[in-house]
Amino acid sequence: MKQTLLATLLCITAFSAGAQETLKDVDLSNRHTTMEDLKAGQALIDAQNAASRIPASEAREFIKRLDATVKRGLTQLDNKQADPVQIRELAIDLSSLEAEGKKFGVLFTPFHKCNEAAVSAASSWQGLMFNDALQFENGFIEYEAAGAACERAAG
Questions:
Q1: Whole-angstrom distance between the N-terminal and C-terminal Cα of the chain?
Q2: What is the pLDDT of residue 33?
Q3: Closest CA to 58 of 111, 118, 98
Q4: Would residue 30 count as lying in a domain?
Q5: Which range, of 49-53, 136-140, 151-155, averages the lowest pLDDT?
Q6: pLDDT for the residue numbered 137
Q7: Total domains in the fold of the chain
Q8: Contact 51/105 with Cβ under 8 angstroms?
Q9: DSSP string for residues in 4-59
């Protein structure tokens, strides 16, 4: 009984002594922030602000052009008319639409799904070009979902 009481008192003393230690602050900030870092951060903020001011009509027009490009590619595939030159030209068109889609921004902007739709469409077509059926299918499914969300956001 004495041993149990002594062990209990020792444990309580040890825990209370450990709890009295002060917490240490860990500074995770970069103390060597350069002007380039500040400019890059400001550029991202400016891009997000610009993306949030894009009118819905511009997003609707973009998603219509993207849909038309994707449908043109699917028509070529369905009719077995797609030769390597046409496939490459469509890949270039989707790549340019993907680059244009970046203006819609990423998260926290009204039409960020338009950007995601363009990325998914280009990724899907790359899967077709490299005979990766899974990438083609997943990219197309993601494109359809993001495109529908973009159309809903654009009204």
A1: 77
A2: 80
A3: 111
A4: no
A5: 49-53
A6: 95
A7: 1
A8: yes
A9: HHHHHHHHHHHHHHHHTSPPPP---S-TT--HHHHHHHHHHHHHHHHHHT--HHHH
